Amino acid sequence: MTGQATLFVNAAQTVTCAGPAAARRGSGMADAGVRTGVGVAVIGEQIAMVAPDDRLRQRFPHADEVDCDRGLLAPGFVDSHTHAVFGAARYAEHELRATGVPYLEIAARGGGIHASVRSLRETSDDALLALATERIARLVAGGVTTLEVKSGYGLSVAEELRTLRVIRRLRDALAVRVEATCLGAHEVPREHREVAGGREAWLAALEEELHPAVAREGLARFADVFCEPGVFTAAESRRVLQGARAAGLELKLHADELHDGGGAELAASLGAVSADHLAAVSDAGIAALASSETVATLLPATMLFLGTGRQAPARRLIEAGAAVALATDFNPGTSPLTSFPLLLTLAVSELRLSAAEAWVAATVNGAAALGLAGVTGQLAPGFSADLAVHAVDDHRALPYWFGERLCRVAWSRGRACHP
Amino acid sequence: MTGQATLFVNAAQTVTCAGPAAARRGSGMADAGVRTGVGVAVIGEQIAMVAPDDRLRQRFPHADEVDCDRGLLAPGFVDSHTHAVFGAARYAEHELRATGVPYLEIAARGGGIHASVRSLRETSDDALLALATERIARLVAGGVTTLEVKSGYGLSVAEELRTLRVIRRLRDALAVRVEATCLGAHEVPREHREVAGGREAWLAALEEELHPAVAREGLARFADVFCEPGVFTAAESRRVLQGARAAGLELKLHADELHDGGGAELAASLGAVSADHLAAVSDAGIAALASSETVATLLPATMLFLGTGRQAPARRLIEAGAAVALATDFNPGTSPLTSFPLLLTLAVSELRLSAAEAWVAATVNGAAALGLAGVTGQLAPGFSADLAVHAVDDHRALPYWFGERLCRVAWSRGRACHP
Predict the structure, then answer these.
(1) Which residue from A12, A368, B116, B416 has the least number of CB within 10 angstroms?
(2) Candidates B90, B348, B350; nearest CB to A95
(3) Are A15 and A119 members of one domain?
(4) Mind listing the pLDDT tens digit for each residue in B324-383?
(5) pTM confidence score
(6) What is the CATH number of the domain that holds A57?
(7) Pick from A38, A57, A140, A3: which is nearest to A379 by CA?
(8) How far apart are CA B133 and CA B124, in angstroms?
(9) What is the span of the domain harbouring residue B333?
């Protein structure tokens, strides 16, 4: 590696998460590689060296320096599950749900996912881009340097492709790394629900039109399905995912969010990179994830925002040997959350992870949930220079300072993305 | 009222919470006085007029203007329950508790409230002042314009008085309004626990020395007791509070946080301004609060941070006719939360309040919980000019945008306190 080096020095503590280029599973999540007196050298888009400050300065005597000012130096967070491209917010629904109005009535009053479909279709590409840019900036301000963005509010072949093209523009425009997922199978479109055979027609459109077009145009790396009783069955999800794989896409799955639908088992059996949500995962689902490469991505803010009074069985997943990741699920209906650090608080307080496990879940395992385990999520030589400095002196302080964003500096691929 | 006026104009929506100078009870909480096209005129420390922008400009043609830029104009939040003066943070405990280490073992390892007592005693007045100033600035950045601060980590007569003198310095130095509470009865001091008769000696010291000294020196308006099985019994709490009242202090009470100890009934029977926590309040306690003037102050962040999996029965309290307030409980052990707006999210999602009820709980009823119902918490003529402008266009948006601080401007007593 040649070129001008930049040294991140004078950290009080450094979370490296360094290790194999793979998800950390089970008890392997307990070690976040927390060190003191260690800095990072960046050359170009990569991390060149992780070592004590004086050794970095010896090796790179003419380097620029970023003073961490006795803060915490850490990998940038990887937010592996967002629906960050949407039109209007959905304020009314939050209150209606809280005060006991059932989902079907909320939907009948024009709320729910179909509200976001209507809104997205009415919003121009440029407006969607501007809204997403502003919203993603809040995620980045918390130290997120890689995020996934799903389509799924288009729900027609043309509108799904349009959404994914907006995501491509985001990917090209933003300093942070963006990975795209096609979630045409977010729901059966309303116009299909109202006609005989419409459900089958949408499944066929996904298989025959949308996923091939997405793959052809290189618009997304992943396909995803909302596998949940009342949305898509496990059998339908299997069909959609197999078709998507045949078209050349990798697989993710919304699995067992509120009811067990066999989603975890399906994701594991198909070798999906992740099974997401899992608040209602069965014992069989836990076992399936533990014996697969599929990352169990937990979205604790969603369960909290929905007021369900429960959370995914994170400890049982880890004890079974699964790899657990954390993500915001940022979306207008069930998780309008753009503060990634709040997830660390929820991970410790609600999911009962240790602080180190929460860090691993937020970095290495998030990367693995996007097929990026060899690329980002670690402070280690050869990894992408995706890092953040937080204004705390201890890795346990970020989960602790509930509701704060303490990120002072974030870099993605060797360039400042915050402030 | 004479003097130069300042007009807050061009708000998209205005939450006035205007009405009687008293807590809103039961169904009375449902109306937050949400209006459109309405601004506020401030003269000196007070609100002079609340009216449509053009009428304000007619009445005060030479006024200065603050452009709300289509944001939300609202009363400043009243945070009626904090322990904001403390020394070191308690990171380790958060993780230990989450991973299942029982409280007694955490205490044996040097954690718990006694850790904060040790830390406070080792920290100079100036250092405590500096730490509290920085921490309170985060509360204010979320739109808090009045807050209560308790002692309770001194736990000797001298250290309690020292803490309250630090709080007095805060009160004199900060732009926001600070009300002080003496919480000498936070716990039995460790040095008293270790000797025969020590518990009784501390109760006597509170009654005979601390509370009279606090009242004499004007160091606090309120006395408070941690009434909870394992801390102080209802009988002990009654004794302490009656003594405090005799000394000239008003009363607050930590009541029924994790176990029902008859705290709510006690607070109501003594006419305390508030009973706080209440996650384990009994039906009799709810009935007692509903038929008293005592405000039920709920601290949902604490229950979340502790990972208890439950919350105070907010809806039952409101349906019974009680007045519910929200507060952060900001403290180093069980609620290191300095984002007041997050409480609004928790109020809707977890406590099942409507957005309007959450606003009333965060303003008018917080004021009532500090005996300030006629002073702050409303945008109405004659009230203190304590107000905030948030970068949203709807009062439901603040609970909705989970984890954000969207406060652009805050004023306390007619002066800018943020930014």
Answers:
(1) B416
(2) B348
(3) no
(4) 999 999 999 999 999 999 999 999 999 999 999 999 999 999 999 999 999 999 999 999
(5) 0.96
(6) 2.30.40.10
(7) A38
(8) 14
(9) 78-368
